Amino acid sequence: MTFDDRTRGASVVFGDAKAFRLGSDVAVLILDVPARLPSAAKCTLVMQDQPVPLVSTTLSLTTGSQRILWAMRPGEQPARGQISTESGNLQTVTLRPVGELPPFDVEALFAELAPEGCIKFLSNLLTAWRSAFRMSRDPLFVGVVEDALHALTSRSRPAKVACPVAEGRYLVETAISADFGEISAVYALSANVLLPLASQSRIGIHGEKNLRPCHLIVECSRLPQSLVLQGKRGVAVRELIPGNPRYPSLQAWWTERGRAPELREFVVRSLSGVPEGGAAMAADLQLRTPLPARQIGKSPMHPAAEVDLALALSGGLLAGGWSHDPTGILAGIDYLKEDGTVVPLDGNWYEFPAWARGAKEDSRTDVTGFVAWLPLNEPLGTLLQPRFQMRLASGAVKPLVPKPQPFEPTAQRNRILRAVPPQHAIDQAFRTILAPALQDVERRLGRTIEVDYTKDYGLPQEAPIVSIVVPLYRVLDFLRFQLSGMATDPWLAKNAEIIYVLDSPEIQDETEHLLGGFHLLHGLPMKLVVMNRNGGYARACNAGARFARGTVLVMLNSDVVPTSTGWLQALMRPLMEQKGLGAIGPKLIFEDGSLQHAGLYFARDRHGVWLNHHFHKGMPGDYAPAQVARSVPGVTGACLVTRRDIYERVGGYTEDYVIGDYEDSDLCLKIRRCGYDIGYEPSACLYHFERRSIRRSQDYMRGVASQYNSWLHSERWNDDIADLMAAGSGSEGIASFGGEAEARSAA
């Protein structure tokens, strides 16, 4: 196969297929499709030893015809092949080894190619062909790319490294044509090397002479000579100016340039993806140099507004605040995106009566509160001050900028729980606004929770029969009484291990000291599991269960104290004898002897949400109906006994309830769904000094956590609960007790 008719600068005809050297061991075969063939005709290359891979592309000619290129690795001996269409054989070709082929001539290829064909060819070089044949470091291939770039780009513009962002990441500044479009990929081009770079880019809105400012954050171990920018509309080359960066550090750059909002948000988003502290650095930079907060003050005649909640989460943006529109000219509130576009918040918006501080000190005025959830395709990163605007009916806009927002998941969760007053926390607020935000934060929080430390106190090598898991959160007041009650129970002391899970690691030293003393005093085998941070009741219980060695699991609150010995045997006996029993709970009494728990059931509130209630709560401890062992819809997690295999089968406690509530009934319903029953055993009786630890959590008591948990529980289990309550449970049925029991938030 020859290329005798090739002359530089002249039009080359590929009516007969011709082959060239594309790389050190890669050839490309080129054929112009005959004009007689329909445009939809499909040409295929078939060889006796079909090359793998075989990559083809079709390029448009200015004449309206098409030029086909096949890239492949030919063998060491000449090989024959057939180029065919559906109608038959088109040409017979002989492909010689790469070393015998002429070099690839870009100018010859581009002759008669339409502009879009040239761009498509270069895109194929950069992407599919480079990757398929692993030619990033092939000098011949890189030379072809350089020739194509030279033919398509008039001249290389400069680019300057502004500053290092992190190890191996650089902020690069340049300019680009206004009609270039978005940058889809960036490549590092140096002598004999073409490598794709992980990168992020931002093209500004305003510029000079049809050029817009362009900023790139590129990842590379060593800065290249040039950058190749690829977009849907073309390719651009930027030559990096040699020398030191303009700023020695990102902090120095930020001090001078970090107040430009759009550029600031681009750097924050990029920095947030840097592992090992990138998000923390982004937050620190914003806190050091915050944007001035902006609100529109309240006026009797003019609209006013403030955004005081603006959490940039991984799945979207939660915004909240208030507005006041005395004359009816407020059209809406919009979120301002990094690229300058605006997104109205009213697509997923909930309003409620609220108040704002007035002009006079300690004065309040009535306003309209709002909260909105805006799903986003790309996370905003650790952005502490998303920007908004108040839009008037006239089209005029006024900026709204919140104060810096929290970025730590627990602090974000607490802000969400206070976004809506409890009396206005209804389904409309939860379903599409607060619930997605809370679920987002809980997922992030869960990824940060782990066991930080464990310590054993006399655990024998032989596995016990029972593992008692007790989560601890701040309150250690009842440990002395709880351990004394268990230590004086001979069977328990012989057959059980106690696993204390500390969910407030700030009191680790105090807890270790107490448990060490109690172990010396009582000799009970114990393990202390310390979490790295507070993660909530369910995560603490599940962490403790993972260390359990017993066949039977007892989930026990730290404020539950035995009234006498034998309670654990009384609960284990039916659990082990009745194979259909999945979990069981005891009678719990308050310190005055009145009933706190004799099993739990469900009843709807005025909004139709299922709430957990306790049978006979507040009645005397010897109230006759509470002395009957029976099946119940559920039992409280204050003392819940189950088999470890069942607990593991259902996945333990569900961890997406906030702080600690409704996990116990959720667990019971999961066990029921697996075909097991839930039992109540009154012969086992313990004191429960109810909810002492959760009262220490102000965010739970003051916010909407309880309403959210009950809403989430109802959403998840509505059909199961409705069927269960309709069927009744126990010998007396459930409905007859619904009016006597008091609702509770958690136990």
From TrEMBL:
The keyword Repeat does not apply. GO terms for molecular function: transferase activity. Coiled coil: none annotated. The keyword Zinc-finger does not apply. Residues 467-650 form the Glycosyltransferase 2-like domain. Keywords: Transferase. InterPro entries: Glyco_trans_2-like, Nucleotide-diphossugar_trans. This is Glycosyltransferase. It comes from Sinorhizobium terangae. The lineage of its organism: Bacteria, Pseudomonadati, Pseudomonadota, Alphaproteobacteria, Hyphomicrobiales.
